[in-house]
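Allow me, if you will, to draw on your knowledge of protein folds for a short while. The matter concerns a single protein, recorded as an amino acid sequence and a row of backbone structure tokens. Kindly check, if you would, that the fold set down in the tokens agrees with what the sequence suggests. You will find the record immediately after this paragraph.
***
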Amino acid sequence: MGTKLNSLTARMILIGLAIHAVLLPLLFYGLLYIVEQSHEEQFVNDVRKYSRVIADLFESDDIVDNKVRAVHLLDSAVLGSGGVYAELIEGDARLRSELFPGDSAVEIKDDFSFGEHGDRVYSLSIPLNMPGRHVELRMGFDESPTIEQIELARQRLIIVLFTYLIVSIIAIVMLSARMTRPLRALQKASRNIADGNHENHLQVDSRLAEIEELANDLESMRSALVNMNSSLLQEIAEKDEANKRREVLENTLRQSQKLETVGVLAGGIAHEFNNILLSIFLYTEQAIHDLPPGDPIHKHLERVLKSSKRAKSLVQQILTFSHQAGTKDFRPIDIKPVIKEVFELMRALIPATVEIHQELTADECMILADRDQIHQLVINLCGNAYEALDDNDGSITLTLDSVIVDTEFAREHPQLRVGKYAKLSIHDTGHGINSSDLDRIFEPFYTTRAVGKGTGLGLSVVHGIVMSHHGDITIESKPGKGTTFHVYLPKTEQGS
């Protein structure tokens, strides 16, 4: 195409090709890995759930000893799931589906992962809960459809990436040609200036800041040769214009950052809704499964109603936090009933192996606050404390005190002023937090949990709520010795 290899256009094209040569294989194998894992995990989860359902049927109907019904159920299990075989094993006795393929003497091994034995059959055993007897349900499922789906996804991924590569190459060629066109114009103009042609103004059509600045520099040089005084005046005008442009860009950047923060916080809505819906599901299922005939259900239904109301106001809470506003909903409230309500809720949600204690001051703790946001704050901190416990073992302690912030303490914590505060402390005996993580613990999406175990938004929402209530939050933690969060909220003398 008549382009020298040492030219800017050629080098931009070569750099673009080199970048694609490195990134596209990584992207392909990364996406392929995600697709494979997704299909394989979905397959394994589905077959295990299905096998558990079949096992429950055998346990609930007690039909293991009825050979005709048992074989009929095994046949139905194979036909209804894309299965390969199904059998019941009790000691040396085996009761198999009539659809059992191949040599019945072949020993079948359980699979612990997709495609483990290379036979395209996923085998698993489930022991039946039958007192005094050891009966196992063994089932095999065909892995071929999932393998075919993965192969089809692979082919489609190749087509998409190949199309992307072609489009990218075309875009790189067009972009490089467009970027070098102003440079060639600048080269021609500079030669004209060198030849003594100073009359014509230098004009280059480009949106790139570097090229525009270079054109301005050459224009300044040209103007300096014509008239030094006019050149100085022009430079001053250009600096003023540059300053105005910088101020506009800075304002735009600040606004963009604010909008980005709103978007980050809005992403936590689903996370917070899950916390609320969890209590709804808990009490609903408890009422359905555990309630004896004639017992009152009023208490559970009230909790369901409260959770629903909190879910309805969740969006407004997060928007209020993102803008550090919403004081129009602040009212004098006693924080102790809120803590007691959260205590009862967490006690119902957390396993009995975890001890939960509350140590509340006898004095009245009135604060000017949004009750729903304070409820959300305590829920998030308690949930964070529970997640820090290993193997559902340990303790969580909620402490509420009235403290006075003096001048020295306020100097160390600029968010606080001298006066009376309600101090809420939540302590857990979990694994603690490394010192390297403490400085970033309140950043949005920053989490020390494993992938898929958390969004990293809970503590950032807590921090925003505390700041909007003109309080402060501190953290004390050492690895292996637990963590304590201290929340300071200014008290109010107004009655509720």
Notes: Confidence is low (pLDDT under 50) at residues 251-260, 323-327. Residues 106 and 319 are 63 Å apart (CA to CA). The longest helix spans residues 8-61.
